[in-house]
Write a structure and sequence with these properties.
- Chain A: It is found in: Cell membrane.
- The complex is a heterotrimer.
- Chain A is built from 13 helices and 4 strands.
- By secondary structure, chain A is mainly alpha-helical.
- Chain B folds into 2 domains: 186 residues, Rossmann fold, CATH 3.40.50.300; 82 residues, no CATH class.
- Chain B has 10 helices and 10 strands.
- Chain B is globular.
- Chain C has a single domain, classed as ABC transporter involved in vitamin B12 uptake, BtuC (Orthogonal Bundle).
- The chains are: A mainly alpha, B alpha/beta, C mainly alpha.
- The interface between A and C is large, with 43 and 41 residues.
- The structure holds adenosine-5'-triphosphate and magnesium ion.
């Protein structure tokens, strides 16, 4: 048990990682992330990149839904805006990838603000439905606009860095992971300041927040902007990763996937967005693995993979909401507490 | 019968409520309510359940828009001023039903009160360097030194508010209101549901706030003992109308007030539903 | 020259599919009124009805007049289980959490039918009379006409039933104020259960009609999205709104599909949805709740 964490220095107390253990864990995680690509197979690198992209997007959704309480079923559609922007810029302008990503993010933020405008008048579920409507409209636009290549979509060249094409998971890893890490760090910072507090206040009790000095519309739109900026960046990374963007790349079920990720991980915690996105990305792989194991005994197992995955996703959403509404992050917290107290108490 | 009109020099008045009327559908919550709050005073608004006290506060905060009439704060008309802007001008308040943010710690709830006076923008926040960091640390230091110590809530600063007992929550709400840099502090039933000891603590805090922070206090309260003890001026509402105002002693013996409170025995209960039962 | 006959036929076809939106919408509203749950799984429950009918009629070779009640009962059973197992434990949670539970439920149901019946679209055995029907000179596909009739009968029964039966009174009281309803002796949990049972049964029945017209497939749940538009347009808590909204959206979709092309259907309905949210967020007939501090 830790005794005597008396803090007189507020700067230390306000730090992101305030215990020595936390600092150590973060350092270890960074070291592992740097070493990983040198030991992992392409398959695991592929998964790592996919996880990172999903972490980026889930973190964005967590800002909007988990922290601000505005449910969105449009995260995948927002990602498509970023992905298409990046693809179009890469194909037609050939500008540097970081610039493309940034433009993709900003453009998505604008779209997000547009979608968020009804949020002052309509709440909760109505808003969720408005985001579905926005997804439908965006899908239509991308499927019919010549610039975005219609139903065929766009195939794009890889990102280039000093003439080197980033087209293997190994190289892309060094693009995707740092960007994701910065995004997560930014999100964590956000909630150390008045902006993040305003978001949470809106979630917890938005009408009294107004009387306490928070202009609701402004902060709701800001939350939409940040969240869709994140989605746009994630979509841009996605585009560089897969290099083919079609209207079917970002269906409504993907939006549900991200919602599930933050529910399973833990809404309204940064750690939750990370854990949830990684977990949900790995579940299908795990199912694939299991299907591979049972195929010798049950040859149709692979055919059942898709529906079983659908069921597992649904069951995870329902199960976590009912039994562990604070998600994996809460389980993690309990484990930590157990070890802090151990061996004094159980 | 109305109490004697009290005439105050304009610069002595921090808040003027001028002919405010408010209705919800057919319910007339406030009818032509006028009174003034003197700078540096403790003014109490009393009245039976459902008299319109909370509605009055909400109107002053800008949460309800009056059907007619106006609120003047420090010589400036608040008509058309949105609630967040009013908060920035120095109108701070607590709520009858405690409106703390359940998902935040005590410290964050208090910090939130300062929102309107901070400058950190979105980009500052994302990088947490320079202004954002400086502002947060200054705020933290000020809250620790001026508010947390003052209200004696050091031991709960990192607790999630959801775990706190009722009396402490009221105190945290007061702390948050103080963080708002109040010039007029509005307290909606600050001691409702408290025992004798807690009530005395809160009364002491209110008096200290007035002295040390140099703020004017406007409070709604049912606890007559406390109202009579600490307030300088009392406004009595009944059925949305001001039926008397004056010093605590004068109001206490005003026949209209006595009648209103006698009637409240059965009428008030019927008007205000389960709360009074 | 405007071809009035053609327009009339499109209009009637739109009314036909609109009626199916209307019944499903009514089922949705019933659940919302009683339990304040926005049930996003209504499309999947409808789909389940279609598949249950298929299972009974094509799998067990039961006659249609037996298979239909089987489908409805299957829906009702699912409704009962869902209410007990998923919704009741969420009592008191934020409406948004409950909403997301229904999203999860929809996912589970969609996966389930795919495992049992496969991913390919299926046709239901024919069970409606197929003699062509003319209204004046306008031709109406017989399935659409019978679907319309059945749907209208159910909607009417609902509206009348709620107005004049004791259950209707209990529902109305529960919708207005749960605590008060409790205190005057209304068995609120029973109202909850019954509303889910009845609504899911009705949705499953609607699924049989929808499946009879357009076939069934595991993606049939998207029907729920159109229903969502319907109830938002009509107002989440208004039966009349579901009826009017359903017919309206049905007709709009029919015209959009005919004159602009099938892919415009969703675009047009969801644009209407956005418009409604902007100008009348609580729908045409819904009630707007005032907030208190
Ligand atoms: N948002 C609202 N919608 C409809 N009626 C309201 C609303 N707010 C208040 N009222 C009504 O206005 C009247 C005054 O209510 P108010 O809450 O201001 O009374 P109060 O004096 O604060 O009572 P209490 O002592 O019980 O807190 C009551 O009849 C109440 O029902
Ligand atoms: Mg009150």
């Amino acid at each position: 048990m830790r005794i005597g964490t008396l803090k007189t220095d507020y700067a230390a107390d306000e730090a992101l990682f305030d215990t020595r253990l936390q600092k150590l864990l973060i350092l270890l995680a960074c070291a592992a992330a740097v070493l990983f690509p040198f030991v992992a197979s392409p398959y695991w690198l592929f998964l790592a990149c996919l996880c990172a992209i999903n972490v980026a997007s889930a973190t964005g959704l967590n800002i909007l839904t988990g922290y601000t309480g505005l449910v969105s079923l449009g995260q995948a559609a927002f990602m498509s805006v970023g992905a298409y922007t990046v693809a179009v810029l890469e194909i037609h302008a050939g500008t540097p990838f970081l610039l493309n990503l940034l433009v993709g993010g900003l453009l998505t933020a604008l779209v997000g603000i547009g979608v968020g405008i009804p949020s002052l008048r309509v709440k909760g579920l109505y808003l969720a439905i408005a985001t579905i409507a926005a997804s439908v409209v965006l899908h239509f636009v991308f499927a019919h606009w010549p610039l975005t290549g219609g139903m065929q979509g766009l195939s794009m060249p890889p990102a280039r860095l000093f003439g080197l094409a980033l087209d293997q998971p190994f190289q892309l890893y060094w693009l995707i992971l740092p960007v994701t890490a910065l995004m997560v760090l930014g999100a964590a910072n956000l909630f150390r300041t008045r902006v993040g507090r305003a978001f949470i206040a809106i979630r917890d009790r938005d009408i009294s927040a107004e009387v306490l000095g928070i202009p609701l519309l402004r902060y709701k739109l800001m939350s939409f902007a940040v969240s869709s900026f994140y989605a746009g960046l994630a979509g841009g990374l996605w585009a560089y990763f897969f290099r083919v963007v079609t209207p079917e790349s970002f269906p409504l079920v993907n939006s549900i996937f991200y919602l599930a990720a933050i529910i399973v991980g833990g809404m309204g915690t940064i750690l939750g967005g990370i854990l949830g996105a990684v977990f949900m990305t790995m579940v299908p792989e795990l199912l694939k693995f299991v299907a591979g194991l049972v195929t010798p005994f049950y040859p149709d197992a692979l055919a059942l993979l898709a529906p079983v995955r659908t069921i597992v996703f649904g069951a995870l959403i329902v199960g976590f909401l009912i039994f562990e509404p604070h998600g994996l992050a809460e389980i993690w917290r309990r484990i930590r507490r157990f070890f802090h107290l151990w061996p004094f108490r159980t | 019968m109305r109490g004697l009109p009290v005439t105050l020099a304009a610069r002595d008045v921090i808040l003027g409520v001028e002919g405010v009327s408010l209705a919800f559908g057919g319910v007339r919550a406030l009818t032509d309510v006028s009174f003034s709050v003197r700078r540096g005073s403790i003014t109490a608004v009393i009245g039976p359940n459902g008299a319109g006290k909370t509605s009055l506060f909400n109107t002053i905060s800008g949460f309800y828009r009056p059907r007619s009439g106006n609120v003047v704060f420090d010589g400036r008309s608040l008509a058309g001023t949105a609630p967040p802007e009013r908060a920035r001008l120095g109108l701070a308040r607590t709520f009858q039903n405690i409106a703390l943010f359940r998902g935040m710690t005590v410290l964050d709830n208090i910090k939130l009160g300062r929102h309107a006076h901070m400058r950190t923008g979105l980009l500052d926040a994302l990088v947490y360097r320079g202004r954002a960091r400086r502002e947060e640390l200054e705020l933290r230091a000020e809250i620790e030194e001026r508010i947390i110590d003052f209200l004696e809530i050091q031991h709960i600063r990192n607790a999630p508010v959801a775990t706190l007992p009722y009396g402490l929550r009221k105190r945290v709400e007061l702390a948050r209101a103080l963080a708002m840099r109040p010039r007029l502090l509005m307290l909606d039933e600050p001691v409702a549901g408290m025992n004798r000891e807690e009530t005395e603590d809160m009364a002491r805090f209110i008096l200290d706030v007035k002295e040390e922070w140099d703020v004017t206090i406007l409070m709604v309260e049912h606890d007559m003992g406390m109202v009579m003890d600490i307030s300088d001026h009392v406004v009595v509402l009944n059925f949305g109308q001001v039926i008397a105002e004056g010093s605590p002693a004068a109001v206490q013996v005003d026949p209209a007030v006595v009648a209103a409170y006698l009637g409240a025995g059965d009428l008030g209960r019927r008007l205000s539903g389960p709360e009074a039962a | 020259m405007t071809d009035w006959l053609f327009l009339t036929e499109v209009f009637l076809a739109g009314l036909g599919s609109g009626a199916l939106y209307a019944v499903t919408g009514v089922a949705f509203v019933l659940i919302y009124k009683a339990t304040r749950v926005v049930n996003l799984a209504i499309g999947e429950i409808l789909m389940l009805g279609g598949y249950a009918f298929f299972g009974a009629a094509a799998g067990w070779h039961l006659p249609a007049w037996v298979a239909l009640p089987v489908a409805i009962l299957a829906g009702a059973l699912v409704g009962a289980v869902v209410e007990r197992g998923l919704i009741r434990p969420m009592l008191g949670e934020s409406p948004i959490s409950v909403f997301m539970v229904t999203i999860g439920l929809g996912s589970i149901l969609a996966g389930f039918v795919q495992i049992v019946w496969g991913a390919d679209p299926l046709r239901l055995p024919e069970f409606l009379p197929s003699a062509p029907i003319f209204i004046g000179e306008a031709y109406v596909a017989p399935k659409v006409a019978y679907g319309f009739l059945a749907a209208m009968v159910v909607v009417t029964a609902f509206v009348l039933g709620l107005r004049f039966s004791r259950g209707g009174v209990a529902l109305k009281a529960t919708a207005a104020d749960q605590a008060a309803a409790y205190s005057v002796g209304i068995d609120v949990p029973r109202v909850f259960s019954l509303s889910w049972i009845v609504a899911c049964g009705v949705a499953a029945g609607a699924g049989v009609l929808v499946g009879a017209i357009g076939g069934i497939s595991p993606t049939m749940g998207v029907f729920g999205l159109s229903v969502l538009v319907v109830v938002i347009v009509g107002g989440l808590d208004s039966m009349a709104g579901a009826l009017v909204g359903g017919l309206f959206i049905g007709v709009v979709e029919a015209f959009a599909g005919t004159f602009l092309g099938g892919e415009y259907r969703f675009l047009v309905t969801f644009s209407i949805l956005i418009l409604i949210l902007m100008v009348r967020p609580y729908g045409l007939f819904g009630t707007h709740e005032i907030e208190r501090l």
